[in-house]
Amino acid sequence: MARRKATDPDRRVGVLLVNPGGPGDSGVDFAVRRAPSHFSADVQEKFDIVGFDPRGVGGSQPVRCSQELLNQRPSAYPRNQAEFDQLAEYNRTLREDCRRHSGPVFDHADTLSVVRDMEALRRSLGEKKINYFGHSYGTLIGEQYAEEYGDRIRTMALTANIDHSLGAREFLVSSAATAEDSFHQFVKWCKSTSSCALHGRDVTAIWDNLLARADRGEIRDPENPDQVLTANAIAFAAFKEYFYGPDWDELATYVAELDAQEPKARPPSQQPQQPRPETSQGAVQQTTAYPFHAVFCQDWRFRPKDYREFAGLTKAELRAAPHMRGAPRTHPAVAGCVGWPNEVNNPQHRLRITEAPKILMLHSLHDPANNYAWATNVHRQTRRTTGLLPYEGAGHSVYGRSDCTRDVVDDYLTELKIPSAGSRCGPAAMN
């Protein structure tokens, strides 16, 4: 863990524990490097900002797996029962490999265990009550802490909220739908913005044709011409690199650059490569930090039992997001749990928060990753203990989106002010 002390000790309110999400992102890195530019001067003056790496993440004995085995990952889109069985067998092999390299923590990397760790941190810090800021997957830590230890909370602000009550179909379809919505937001912006590199053209047709060319192996990575880009890789890049911001200008330039490529057929022996997890520093690395599925597959009981069930989920995704080819991130996430044991440490359930003070939730109406309906579902489950403020724009992060979103959170954390019911923050100007 790392603590950035309040810059004005005389005005200090308490500690603000933070988690930026993932699962797998470092809270220590967030507190040390990102907090000064992320939080307002007022928050930094009044709170010790405390970041921690959840178990299995970063400096907290990270989950590690063999790089060579990670490089052999099969497609997350099996085409028949045989390929589904191959995926399941690979996942079982990878799971055992990661367990061997990581030790006992691998079987206990779920969020409920992290919540108990956070309570231990509160005791170690000597604080009767904590303040908490959680983003994206970090909201699940907050929600479950509020269930277990609600009376130890002073304030809790959650942005881009996770709904931990969803089944596999709801989870995948809603994830696909919100990615598709972001695509349409991009098309709408490009149509009305002369600086868009695709302005005046049929952006949807260009995009669909680009993915079709990628299916034929005709599109290469501009930064690595020897690597062929699959349609799913292009969709994922648009989703993660450009929708999150959102960075519409950069996305338009990226699509225009790929579209302008001359067709170059892929040699029969060359197969598209899957994105690889980031390796750790050093000359020759045998293992790589890879905590995602150790957390995700213990937090969600997503275990498609055969190809027929998995294919049904995939078809439902595609119907919800035909232009984005389904859910770019959550499909591989669910695919990575195929073949895992059915037992789950922290299975989905409706939130039951009884002792917590009022919790502030913010969520973008056009969040590309976490559907706005997830926030409304969580709020519906916890109406007596949560207040939800919509941000009427796009993008995944919310707090620094506008003066409105920042001020609402700051007033809540520092002065315990909850916005009145029906309050909203308008969209910020887009690039």
Explain what the structure shows.
The protein has 431 residues and is of the alpha/beta class. It contains 15 helices and eleven strands. The strands form three sheets. The protein has a seven-stranded mixed sheet with strand order 1-3-2-5-6-10-11, with helices on both faces. Mean pLDDT is 93; it is low at 265-284.
Descriptive terms for the model:
431 residues, alpha/beta, 7-stranded mixed β-sheet, two-stranded antiparallel ribbon, 15 helices, 11 strands, globular
Could you spell the SSE succession in H and E letters? Answer: EEHHEEHHHEHEHHEEHHEHHHEHEH
Roughly what is the average pLDDT, rounded to an integer? 93
User: How widely separated are the two ends?
Assistant: 36 Å
Categorize the overall geometry: globular
Low-confidence stretches are 265-284
Tally the helices: 15
Q: Main beta sheet: strand number and arrangement?
A: 7 strands, mixed
Taking Cα atoms only, what radius of gyration do you get, to the nearest Å?
22 Å
Going by helix content, strand content and strand pairing, the class is: alpha/beta
| Content of β-strand | 5-15%
Question: How many strand segments?
Answer: 11
Q: Helix fraction?
A: 40-55%
Strand order of the largest sheet: 1-3-2-5-6-10-11
